């Protein structure tokens, strides 16, 4: 089997390592089947569609809609690399699944309007499939119910999709929770690479990044512990199963 590639843009080594462990767990891939590209520090390896099965891009402390002067060198470097990777993804029809930061990067690349209108604080939200989502091959492979719990925490979101994109899932406060371009390029606003224990661990690492009030952190965690969010991670296993070659 050709390997998949996980793109990471988290400068914090401990958070990046736990994220990689989660992706390995939820995809069911072995270490050698999931290459790791940390684009906040290194270029993407010289790999194309003939070399890999697909690409998974996870969340990030970066926000694509931040004013350019406020972006760090690591963020500027990562976003330039991701744009270059997405050029190749689209040109070569490489399977792609981007989570949270992935919706901002793929959306921006494809001409979506990304802004802070539909940001959501850390929490669990109801995500409902659209009619197109119910028929989508990846979602059907994952056997997602028509409404499921998504774990979120984001400052920006899709405001408007371009005409060629297909909305696959929506939420009450964030209208675009998942979309597809082409036939094999996906992005989610919710985090399929996280379950409740792991999003709590992640939130502790980013408690001062503006996703929630630190004074309310334990109350937010208590609310999360009462939710079942085990459906969304099946997207990762489905992605690895459907597109492995």
Description:
This protein has 245 residues and is an alpha/beta fold. It has one domain: Class I glutamine amidotransferase (GATase) domain (Rossmann fold). Strand 3, helix 2 and strand 4 form a beta-alpha-beta unit. The mean pLDDT is 94.
List its traits.
Rossmann fold, 245 residues, 34% helix, globular, 8 helices, alpha/beta, nine-stranded mixed β-sheet
Summarize the topology.
Blueprint: E1 4-8, H1 13-27, E2 34-38, E3 54-57, H2 73-92, E4 96-99, H3 101-109, E5 113-115, E6 120-129, H4 131-135, H5 137-142, E7 147-154, E8 157-160, E9 166-171, E10 178-181, E11 185-188, H6 196-205, H7 217-225, H8 234-243
Parallel strand pairs: 1-2, 1-3, 3-4, 4-11
Antiparallel strand pairs: 5-8, 6-7, 6-9, 9-10, 10-11
Order of helices and strands: EHEEHEHEEHHEEEEEHHH
> Which parts are unreliable, with pLDDT below 50 for 5 consecutive residues or more?
none
Q: Main beta sheet, described?
A: 9 strands, mixed
CATH class: Alpha Beta
Distance between the termini: 5 Å
Give a count of the beta strands, DSSP E runs of length 2 or more.
Answer: 11
Summarize the structure.
Residues 50-194 form the Glutamine amidotransferase domain. Pfam families: GATase (PF00117). This protein has 8 helices and 11 strands.
């Amino acid at each position: 089997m050709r390997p998949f590639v996980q793109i990471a843009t988290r400068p914090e080594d401990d958070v990046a390592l736990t994220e990689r462990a989660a992706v390995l767990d939820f995809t069911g891939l072995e270490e050698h089947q999931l290459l790791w590209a940390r684009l906040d520090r290194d270029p993407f390896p010289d790999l194309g569609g003939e070399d890999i099965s697909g690409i998974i891009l996870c969340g990030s402390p970066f926000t694509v809609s931040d004013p350019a002067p406020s972006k760090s060198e690591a963020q500027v470097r990562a976003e330039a690399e991701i744009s270059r990777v997405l050029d190749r993804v689209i040109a070569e029809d490489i399977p792609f699944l981007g989570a949270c930061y992935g919706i901002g990067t793929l959306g921006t690349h494809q001409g979506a309007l990304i802004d802070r209108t539909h940001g959501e604080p850390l929490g669990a939200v109801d995500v409902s499939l659209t009619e197109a989502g119910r028929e989508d091959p990846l979602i059907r492979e994952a056997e997602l119910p028509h409404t499921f719990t998504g774990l979120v925490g984001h400052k920006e979101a899709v405001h408007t999709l371009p005409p060629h994109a297909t909305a696959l899932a929506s939420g009450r406060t964030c209208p675009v929770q998942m979309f597809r371009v082409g036939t094999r390029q996906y992005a989610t606003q919710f985090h399929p690479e996280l379950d409740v224990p792991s999003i709590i661990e992640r939130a502790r690492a980013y408690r001062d990044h503006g996703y929630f009030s630190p004074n309310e952190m334990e109350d937010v965690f208590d609310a999360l512990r009462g939710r079942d969010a085990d459906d969304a991670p099946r997207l990762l296993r489905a992605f690895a199963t459907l597109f492995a070659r």
